[in-house]
UniProtKB/TrEMBL annotation:
<keyword id="KW-0677">Repeat</keyword>
<keyword id="KW-0809">Transit peptide</keyword>
<protein>
    <recommendedName>
        <fullName>Pentatricopeptide repeat-containing protein</fullName>
    </recommendedName>
</protein>
<dbReference type="InterPro" id="IPR011990">
    <property type="entry name" value="TPR-like_helical_dom_sf"/>
</dbReference>
<feature type="repeat" description="PPR">
    <location>
        <begin position="152"/>
        <end position="186"/>
    </location>
</feature>
<dbReference type="Pfam" id="PF12854">
    <property type="entry name" value="PPR_1"/>
</dbReference>
<dbReference type="InterPro" id="IPR002885">
    <property type="entry name" value="PPR_rpt"/>
</dbReference>
<dbReference type="Pfam" id="PF01535">
    <property type="entry name" value="PPR"/>
</dbReference>
<dbReference type="InterPro" id="IPR046960">
    <property type="entry name" value="PPR_At4g14850-like_plant"/>
</dbReference>
<dbReference type="Pfam" id="PF13041">
    <property type="entry name" value="PPR_2"/>
</dbReference>
<feature type="repeat" description="PPR">
    <location>
        <begin position="286"/>
        <end position="320"/>
    </location>
</feature>
Length: 345
């Protein structure tokens, strides 16, 4: 960054107005605030839309607070392009309420600009549907979806995932059936939606249809979505089959998959299986991994093992002390149940 500032100083002394090499160097250094000030202080003639989009891309990727001001400046300078809107909608899909309101206004600007008249940019269409869907504005997401003359898999998946997450399973099923082409994202959205909304048997059924009939290979998210459903219906044999697949594909390196597998074995009554997976996680274990294994021991009456593991966790990191209040009553209940059973013999 110091080298970029020295270059800036040399350009100022020479009266050189070339901005692109300097801005690219500042962006590479990661100082987005300096880059924004640089672009504002070096107005080119005519203004450079590609440079503004470079900066917008960096700001959107970092969810930076300067994204909205820079977008506003690009609007004032009439530099907005389809890519500009795509970046804004993608960033606003998981941002604050203020940026959400701004993005709604940006949609109006997009319509007025004419960039969206044909709906020809699939990335922009997908970003806009995803923006409304992730902000739970499903009616608006559906309206945009219905107005598109062409819809690719990404647009379908954006709305499908929103329906599934929002518990609108009937709407998700209807949209899923209408899809001309289904991929692993589509199938995973349905499996996850069924599992999260308590329809575990349907989640397992859909997973098997995808895997055995549809010829679609599950990914990490698919596997971590179906394993809780396997646990809920007691389908441990399917869970084991999924584990073999996951091991073969190297998916157990994903902590979400490994944790879901620990929980599946624990809920299906295989403490040995849960313990084996828990040990294989090694140093990657997070609080969820420890929670699942401790709860597995406690629920199955192995209170000594639960307490040993609990105290081992407690000694690893002071940050886990906040789980004391939630764990201690469970462990004590397991201890009292064990003690009561022993006293009645």
């Amino acid at each position: 960054m110091e080298e970029a500032k020295r270059l800036h100083a040399r350009l100022l002394r020479r009266g050189d107005r070339r901005l692109q090499p300097l801005l690219l160097r500042v962006l590479a250094a990661g100082d987005l605030r300096y880059a924004a000030l640089l672009l504002e202080s070096f107005p080119s003639s005519p203004p450079s839309a590609p440079l503004h989009n470079r900066l917008l891309h960096a700001l959107a990727s970092a969810r930076h607070q300067l994204l909205l001001p820079v977008f506003s400046r690009a609007h004032r300078l009439r530099l907005l392009a389809p890519l500009s809107f795509t970046l804004l909608f993608s960033a606003s899909a998981a941002a604050s309420s203020s940026s959400t309101r701004f993005a709604v206004c940006a949609h109006a600007l997009l319509i007025r600009s004419g960039h969206f008249a044909s709906g020809g940019d699939p990335f922009l269409a997908s970003a806009l549907v995803s923006f409304y869907a992730k902000n739970r504005l499903l009616a608006e997401a559906r309206r945009v979806f219905d107005e598109l003359p062409r819809r690719d898999a990404a647009v379908y998946n954006a709305l499908l995932s929103a329906y599934a997450r929002g518990g609108l399973i009937d709407a998700a099923e209807k949209l899923f059936e209408e899809m001309p082409e289904k991929n692993v994202v589509s199938w995973t959205a349905m499996v996850s939606g069924y599992a999260q909304n308590g329809r575990h048997e349907k989640a397992v059924e859909t997973f098997l249809e995808m895997w055995e009939k549809g010829g679609v290979r599950p990914n990490e998210l698919t596997v971590s979505s179906v394993l809780p459903a396997c646990a809920a219906v007691g389908a441990m044999e399917l869970g084991r089959k999924v584990e073999r697949y996951a091991r073969g594909k190297g998916l157990l390196k994903n902590l979400y998959v490994a944790n879901a597998l620990v929980e599946m074995y624990a809920k299906c009554g295989s403490i040995r299986g849960a313990w084996k997976v828990f040990q294989s996680i090694g140093q990657q274990r997070d609080l969820c991994s420890w929670n699942s294994m401790i709860m597995a021991f406690a629920v199955h009456g192995l209170w000594r093992e639960a307490l040993v593991l609990f105290h081992k966790l407690r000694g690893l990191n002071q940050m886990v002390l906040h789980c004391l209040e939630s764990f201690w009553p469970v462990l004590m209940e397991a201890w009292w149940m064990k003690a009561s059973c022993s006293s009645t013999r």
